[in-house]
Amino acid sequence: MKGQNKLFIAIVVALILGVAIGGFVHIRYPESAEPFSKNIKLLGTVFIRLVQMIIAPLVFTTLVVGIAKMSDIKMIGRVGTKAMLWFISASLVSLFIGLLLVNWLEPGHVTTLPIQDAASADELLKSSKGFSMEDFVKHIIPKSVFEAFATNEVLQIVVFSIMFGIALANLGDEYAQPVVKLFDIIAHGILKMVGYIMWFAPLGVLGAIAAVVATNGFEIFKVYAIYLRDFFFALGILWLVLLLVGYLIIGNRLFELLRRIKEPLLIAFSTTSSEAVFPKLVEELERFGCNNRVVSFILPLGYSFNLDGSMMYMTFASIFIAQIYGIEMSIGQQITMLLVLMLTSKGIAGVPRASLVIIVATCSMFGIPPEGIALILPIDHFCDMGRSMTNVLGNALATSAVSKWEGQLDNHGGGL
Questions:
Q1: What residues form the membrane-spanning segments (predicted)?
Q2: Residue 406 above 80 pLDDT?
Q3: Which of these, 410, 407, 405, 416, lies nearest to 83 by C-alpha position?
C-alpha cells in the first residue's frame, strides 16, 4: 500500500505541476506554446504507448484463461448474461440521465459560444461518413486475429478469445491444461510489467495536462464554464446513481473498492484514457477480492459494452448542439435518439475520439448540423477527463457486482 500511496501522490503532484507549467508557458511565452505542447505531449504519448503495448496480450490471455478455467459452459452463459444485463441497464440509465439533465439545464440556450470554423471538425466528419450496420459488424468480427492484435481492436480480440476459451474448455484437461497454464503464467508476467509501467504515469499526466493548458490557457474554462458546469453536474448525478447501486450490492466494501481504484481513476482523469488503466484495474480488482476468472471475463467485455460516462456524454452533447442551433426536438425524437445511441455506441471503444464520431453520425441522422461538433471540440479534452474516469468506475462496479452475484467476491482480498 505504501508504494500505491507514493504513486498516487506523484500523480497528484504531476497534475498540479502540469497545470502550472502549461499556464506559465501560455502567459509568458504564447508564441512558443504550440511547439512546447507538441514536445511535452510526448511524455503522455510514451506512457499511453507503453500501456497499449500490453493491452492485446493481457486481454487475450486473461480472457482465455478465465473462460477455460470455468470449464462449465452453463457458468460462462450465466456470468455473461448477468454482465450484459448490467451493461444494458447501466447504458440506458446513463443515456437517460444525460437526456433528462440537458433538457432541464438547457446549456445550449444560455451559453454564448463563439461559432467556430467547421474546418476543425473535418476529420471527425470524414470519420463518421459511411457509418452503417455493415461497418459495425466488421468492427466486431475480426478478419484476422493478427490484425486485431496489431491494431488493439479490443472487441475483436474479445470475440476471438471467448471462442478460443470455450473451445479449450471443451477439449478436456489432458489437452487444455498445459495451454491454460502457459497463458496463466504469461498473464501474471504481464501484470508484473504493469507495476513497472505505472511509474511512468506521473510523467504522462504532466505531459498531457501541460500541453492542453499551454495551448488553450485558463480562458477556455471561462468561455465554456456553463457547459462544463452542467456536464460535470450531470456526471455527478450519474456517479451518485452508480455508487448507490454499488452500495446496495456490495455494501460497505464499496469504500474499500474506491480506495483500491483511486489511482486508475486519477490516471484516467488526467490522461483522458480509460484504456491506459486497464492493466492496473485488472490487478486492483483481483486484490479487492473479485474472482480472477470473473475479472478476466467481465472487464474486457465492459471496455466494449459498458462505457457509462461516454454514454451520458453522447445524449448530453447531441441535444446541446441542437439547442445551440435552436432546433427543437420532440420527446419521441429524443427517445428514438437515445435508442439509436444505445445500439450504435457498442463496440467503438477502440476508435479514437469514439464518442465524437458517434455524436456526428447521430446529429446527421436527426437533422442537426454535424458541423456543430466544432463548438465542443475545444473543451472535449476536459469533458473526456470526466467521462473516462466514469467509464473506469462503471466497469469496476460491474465486475464487483457480478463477482458478488456469483458468490465469488472474497471478503479479504489483498492478493492476486
A1: 7-27, 47-71, 83-105, 154-172, 193-214, 226-250, 319-344, 356-379
A2: yes
A3: 405
